[in-house]
Amino acid sequence: MLIPPNSAKNPPFKTFFCPVFLCERQGFFIVYIMLRAFDVVRLRVILKERKFFTKGLKMEIQPLPQNQETEKTILASLIYDNSLIPQAASLLTAENFYTTNNQRLFYAILDLHKQGLAVDVVTLASHGVDSGYLAELSEHESTVNLKHHADSLKSAAFRRQAITAMAVASQKLYDPDASFTETVNGLADAIKLPEKSNEPLWTNEELTAVITQIITTTPKPFEFLIPKLLPKGICGFIYGEGGSYKSLAALWLCIQRACGYVANSKWLDRFEIFTVGKSMFCSVEDQIIDIQHRAYSIIDCFAASRTDIPRASFENAITENFSVIPRELWMKDNCEHIIDLEGNPTIKAEHIIQAANGKGVDLIIIDTLSRISPLDENDNKACSRLVSVLEHIRDLTGATVLVIAHTSKAGRTAQTDRNGQNGLRGASALMDNGRFGLWFKSLGKNELEIVNSKTFRTGRVEPFKIKIEYPKFMLIDDDTLEDDLMNAVVTDVKEHSGTTQRQTRSRLKKDMKFVSIGFSDAVEEGLIINNGRGKGYVPA
């Protein structure tokens, strides 16, 4: 049986050398030589055993944890926006940076800011910072989410500290004269996490101020992008099955807001757009040419309805108040998702925030949900994190954030879910945590029922029906819809005598509920006859 070296049955090397003293007698000298020879053989065996036990534990030398891109992003952000320096000073120390150059640069930034001087390329260069490195940072991307990047930097710094402390402790543990207890305690002290502050997060003054505001002041009226439907500053979803014109409707909303009341049109032929607003449409799927065709047809509708306004006026208003990020621009940074596998915002989320703030938009639409997250769409925890990232974008822009999504198969057939909250594909946490839902429920070819599945700060809008005459959305009143269905049913029965409701529904491609209404109305009007169960319907 092979016994590991340095075990209880196989003590360390030095214990094998027998302390035999030279003696004048020749016999003792021979014994000493024999014992030394035995020790050499024993030592070779132990070395082989050590090799056997360590050959599967090959240790590769790896660089210490660091993130040069994050360090550069933070430093570039501080140079670009000096207002972030106090926050950085409260979150970071120079030792959190890995390279000496970055440590010195952070010191210089804090020093200049403490003196009340502007922090820019010129002042930093005069402070001894390498101008070539400053030129490199001036071209580097910046961030507005400083805390997220600072947390990443501190995490890497703590890992470096822990690795260094463990390396020192491991060397001491090889020394038999070193105290084991002191070595382990020293390791624990070296990698001890920073103590949490005992200071309360919310002071009594803050809590008193909040309740005083709630009960003693008149609340401000809510702001709406679409009166009595879509509030400002919320996150929500527009969803429906494929081919239900969700993206077209979203494009209409953005362009109508860009033109305001002069467009002389209502969104979905139902909701007035009174004021001009700036919107950003992020298309993860569609390329420029696809969006161009849709937008051009919408502008044609505007020009046709307002012949008193030159088409160029609409084009100028849309250019000023509407921003589009097509697939080509979305993938410019080779990052498709706004959330990573750990549930944190990606650089794509930062780019959206920068673009939205740069344009001053108050509505951001992202198309489509399935393309912006690598997480399991059926995982409630993951979907809660996704909504948190959308809220993160909302918080740093002040905009309403809407995401276009698809319906679940179960939701399409659920007859009891009148509000349609179960129709959104994915975990229930999406609709639970979102503040707005609009379901584009297909009724058949080019006909939709719009269901306000979730609302916030206002009452729910009753479901209504629209018909699409591309690219227009036209409101249908219930009487007109029922008459059309009844006539369609009568025509189908005349062409297919003996048909059943299910067969007619399949041919008309209508929702079964509405087909049944059509049959009932046609029988009541005496236009068709029900021959009884299993015998179908025939013309009267």
Could you explain the architecture of this structure?
The chain folds into four domains: 13-54; 63-193, DNAb Helicase, Chain A (Orthogonal Bundle), CATH 1.10.860.10; 231-476, Rossmann fold; 479-539, Arc Repressor Mutant, subunit A (Orthogonal Bundle), CATH 1.10.10. With 540 residues, it is an alpha/beta fold. The strands form four sheets. A nine-stranded mixed sheet has the order 7-6-8-9-3-10-11-12-13. It contains 20 helices and 15 strands. The model is unreliable at 1-38 and 43-58 (pLDDT under 50).
Features:
540 residues, alpha/beta, DNAb Helicase, Chain A, Rossmann fold, nine-stranded mixed beta sheet, two-stranded antiparallel ribbon, 20 helices, 15 strands
Element layout with pairings:
Layout: H1 26-54, H2 68-80, H3 85-91, H4 100-114, H5 121-126, H6 131-138, H7 146-173, H8 180-190, H9 204-216, E1 224-226, E2 230-231, E3 235-240, H10 246-259, E4 266-267, E5 271-272, E6 279-283, H11 288-305, H12 311-321, E7 322-325, H13 327-330, H14 347-359, E8 363-367, H15 380-397, E9 400-406, H16 409-413, H17 429-433, E10 436-444, E11 447-454, E12 464-469, E13 472-476, H18 478-495, H19 501-508, H20 512-524, E14 528-530, E15 537-539
Helix pairs in contact: 2-4, 2-7, 7-8, 10-11, 10-12, 14-15, 18-20, 19-20
Task: Explain briefly what this protein structure is.
The protein is 48% helix and 13% strand.
